[in-house]
Amino acid sequence: MANSMVAKFNWFVGAICLLLFSSCLREKVVIENLQPKYPFSASCFLEKENPNGIRVKVLRTRKVFGPDNFDSVAILDAQVFMSNGQEELQLFFNDIDQVYQTFPQPEFFVDDADYSLRIKWRDYPEATGKIKLPRLYEIPAEEMQGDIQTYTLVNSPGPQYKISLRFPDQAGQRNYYRILPLIGYTVPNQPQADTFYMPIYSNSIPMLSDEGKDGQELAWSFSSTNVYPLEGMQVVGLKLGVLNIDRNYFNFHKAFEAANSGEDLVEPYFVPLSFSNAYGVFAGSQGYSEKTFFLK
């Protein structure tokens, strides 16, 4: 009799679990009352070439999971410090951009340095993060090979472009790259007119890893769908930039892309955290290469 009761109970629990699982498959589940573990989130992309210096955004934590689930309310009274292991700089709040910022001297960026970021806010535990920038890698322009083709897409705002890029990987370590496509416009029939470039946006963030291809040629291709013609302007070509990024940068943006896919049925994704005692990402890059490919 006891065994029969246990069997019925187990069957009942199993049925409830199956019902909950099937409901989760039909729609995304948002846990409205989940209390965040950490009081704030932070983001910092340490880029040696960035003319805006070092910038750190510190935001109040909202709830639930994901890199996009944070309030847009910036924290104004935090103390933020960046160190290269030898020198520590304090960042000060920029009211216009709502970020903590400093402009370090070029010698602040040291090869193989362990960069650390400290954030102190009120009486909460101090948040800390640490990274090592990827080894400097700049691709010679002659080693960046690419091709651009124009094509017509039904219901598109104008001519679209198929882009391909090939470049050699830096051998000896795991490397990650972000591709930055820019489209160039100029005034037709005016040889002295300047060319200005605008980003080409897509639903995904163009990135590559050399996993399984260390030291080999890497390839990337893309077809635009939403490039708009500008009145009185002519497209002259595309500029392709390659940013040499670290693993934190790669993993965080992959998670961000999954979280914002807009799909109801998505694979579970892991949002990597770069800090202790805070949500968010601390990542970096070192080395930027670019080449312009003109339309034929």
Number of strands: 17
Biggest sheet, open or closed, and with what strands and sense? 14 strands, mixed
Please provide the ordered H/E string of secondary-structure elements.
HEEEEEEEEEEEEEEEHEE
Assembly annotation: single chain
Shape: globular
Number of domains: 2
N- to C-terminal distance: 84 Å
Radius of gyration: 24 Å
Q: How much strand content do the residues show?
A: 35-45%
CATH topology of the largest domain: Immunoglobulin-like
Whole-number mean pLDDT: 82
Spans of at least 5 consecutive residues whose pLDDT stays below 50 are 5-34, 64-71, 265-269
CATH architecture of the largest domain: Sandwich
Structural class: mainly beta
CATH class of the largest domain: Mainly Beta
Number of helical regions: 2
Summarize this structure as a short list of keywords or feature phrases.
Immunoglobulin-like; 14-stranded mixed sheet; 296 residues; 17 strands; 2 helices; mainly beta; three-stranded antiparallel sheet
